[in-house]
Specification:
CATH superfamily of one domain: DD-peptidase/beta-lactamase superfamily
Radius of gyration: 40 Å
Distance between the termini: 182 Å
Number of helices: 20
Helix content: 25-40%
Structural class: alpha+beta
Strand content: 15-25%
CATH architecture of one domain: 3-Layer(aba) Sandwich
CATH topology of one domain: Beta-lactamase
Shape: elongated
């Protein structure tokens, strides 16, 4: 039997090395791929872990929400609100969440809410009625956001009630930021004093102080905003126990003023009345006590802070500090007080008042012919004689009179926390023109603001001690700690004896023999002075129109209050006694009663006016 031939193995033996090489190549390729994955894994979990975690956390946290600080209140001396902030809400949206609003995937077993639309259109349809917006506008705003934009402001200044309506809709991706609305309970009565808010100069949406105390004390009132961030689900819901970060806001301080809200309101009403009656350009009133505390600081025209349409920038100025004017005869108080203090005159000093008085290159005259030209110094002030004032004032050197003008505060800012205050103009004697040496004696050729003018009379009322005018009593921090304002500076202008003598002489001004009988107040002794000065017009660089004023104190036997009324460019009557005197009487009568100041008990001063 024949043996079968043996099987050939050579081909298998030849294929072995090739298979091994292929296997090794595949193994090497796998190892390379695994090493790449491993390297990437090391990079992700090692070197880049913190950075990637931060990016992921930022994505989950979304946009940082601002916690707006409340602006501090402004209150009067009795704690009555003059300016405050009420809560409002700014509604913000996360477009990346709203894009999928009310949508369900094919594998999601939950049914879609059929009564609601989907996406931007569905969310906008629900939000628009509450926001008072057009749904199409909301959709356009949301659609304009980029793929990664997670923050879009939909509405600002909503009431808390409106925000609660939006919350009830339970729309994922909708949140709110707390903001505020500034309100002014006194309206126009204190608008030029308290001020208003306006856009920030840096172009941000933040409102900052634009005038008045709101501007000057903006840093103290504004406070510091905080912020909040927290982890959210893709649907915009906060993740319980997730990472969160919160920096609380710090509200602004509350300012306590020396102002009395009722006196401020009364002054504003009186000024509006006199401006309309006399067809004046403006009117200003200052009410202060003899210690320099300002109880009212009003000017008209004023601005309604809730309706500023058509109001210009100058409408927000408080003319009591921003408007310089030549004071006229009210400045004679400084001249005659200086003469008394220097001992060159006394109330009984005799003067013969001629129709004309030649000094330098000019002939001076009085506004009216004196019925008796033989006047005492008391008669000079009662009749407001320019000539008599020159005759008394020239007994002093120009340098001496200038020194007293400075002592009474002329040429220096009062230091009140109000923007745009003028220091006025008080020339140095070496710079006088030929006639200015004499005109400054009766209040022409120099300028002051209304608070400076009122402060002169407060100094006389305070027995010759000048106290720096005050408007700010102090402030309260958000935690309730009260800090009083620094005490005002004090300086002596004249002696107590000189101040008492001036008060006695100024009583004659409101007598039947004086220029302001209309300023008398039944039951009270009044000491004051009229002013009727030519008014300098910056536009024509000439004198045009008049400044009518009356400044006085009461009770003259024990002065407590000073009221200054200045009427600029009145048309129907321009004398201080007839234009400003009745307003002084109205305001002083109200203030005396409101502050329960008892009537005078002393007899009127009886200084001789003629010789």
């Amino acid at each position: 039997m024949a043996q079968a031939p043996a099987r050939r193995r050579a081909p298998q033996a030849a294929a072995g090395p090739r298979a091994d090489r292929r296997l090794r190549a595949w193994v090497l390729a796998v190892l390379i791929v695994l090493s790449l994955f491993g390297g990437r894994l090391v990079q992700l979990q090692g070197m880049d872990a913190s950075e990637l975690a931060a990016v992921a956390l930022q994505t989950r946290q979304g946009q940082q929400l601002t916690l707006h600080a409340d602006r501090g209140d402004i209150v009067d001396a009795n704690g009555v609100l003059l300016a405050t902030s009420v809560e409002r809400r700014d509604v913000v949206a996360d477009p990346t969440v709203l894009r999928d609003f009310n949508k369900r995937s094919a594998t999601d077993p939950r049914p879609r809410t059929k009564e609601r639309g989907v996406g931007f259109e569905g969310a906008a349809a629900l939000l628009a009625p509450v926001l008072g917006a057009d749904p199409a506008v909301l959709v356009e705003k949301l659609a304009a956001a980029g793929e990664k934009d997670r923050y879009e402001v939909l509405a600002k200044g909503l009431t808390p009630e409106a925000w609660r309506e939006i919350q009830a809709l339970r729309i994922p991706g909708i949140a709110s930021e707390r903001s505020s609305l500034r309100v002014y309970p006194t309206g126009p009565a204190a608008s030029t004093l308290v001020g208003v808010l306006g856009p920030s100069p840096d172009g941000t949406s933040e409102l900052v102080g634009a005038s008045g105390l709101e501007l000057k004390l903006d840093d103290r009132l504004r406070g510091v905003d905080g912020f909040e961030r927290y982890e959210r689900t893709p649907q915009g819901q906060q993740i319980p126990l997730g990472v969160s970060e919160r920096q609380p806001e710090v509200d602004g301080d509350t300012l306590h003023l020396t102002i009395d809200r009722d006196l401020q309101w009364k002054a504003q009403q009186a000024l509006r009345g006199v401006r309309e009656q006399t067809q004046a350009q403006s009117a200003t009133a200052v009410i202060m006590d003899k210690q320099g505390k300002i109880l009212a600081l009003a000017s008209d025209p004023s601005v309604d802070p809730t309706n500023r349409a058509g109001a210009s920038g100058t409408s927000f100025n408080n003319t009591a500090v921003t408007e310089p004017f030549e004071p006229g005869s009210t400045a004679k108080v400084v001249t005659l007080a200086a003469g008394l203090e220097e001992g060159v005159v006394d109330p009984a000093s005799r003067f013969t008042i001629e129709a004309r008085l030649k000094r330098s290159t000019k002939e001076f005259k009085d506004s009216h012919v004196a019925k008796n030209p033989q006047m005492t110094l008391a008669g000079v002030i009662a009749q407001s004689s320019n000539i008599g004032t020159i005759l008394a004032g020239e007994r002093m050197s120009a340098e001496t009179l200038h020194e007293y003008q400075r002592k009474f505060g002329f040429g220096e800012k009062t230091g009140l926390p109000l923007p745009g205050e003028t220091r006025g103009i008080v020339a140095e004697p070496d710079d006088y023109s030929g006639t200015q040496r004499y005109t400054v004696m009766f209040g022409q050729g120099l300028s002051v603001n209304a608070v400076q003018a009122a402060s002169v009379f407060a100094t006389i009322a305070n027995d010759g001690v000048r106290v720096q005018p005050q408007l700010l009593q102090g402030w309260t921090t958000p935690r309730g700690g009260y800090t009083p304002a620094p005490p005002p500076e004090e300086s002596r202008a004249v002696s107590a004896a000189t101040a008492r003598t001036m008060r006695d002489m100024l009583q004659a001004v409101v007598s039947e023999e004086g220029t302001a009988a209309m300023a008398q107040i039944p039951g009270y002794l009044v000491a004051g002075k009229t002013g009727t000065a030519q008014r300098y017009n910056d536009e024509c660089r000439c004198y045009s129109g008049y400044t009518a004023s009356f400044i006085g104190m009461a009770p003259a036997d024990d002065p407590q209050l000073v009221v200054a009324v200045i009427v600029q460019d009145p048309k129907t009557t321009y004398y201080g006694g007839s234009a400003a005197g009745p307003v002084f009487k109205e305001l002083m009568t109200y203030a005396l009663a409101q502050r329960k100041i008892p009537p005078s008990t002393a007899a009127p001063a009886t200084l001789p006016l003629y010789w």
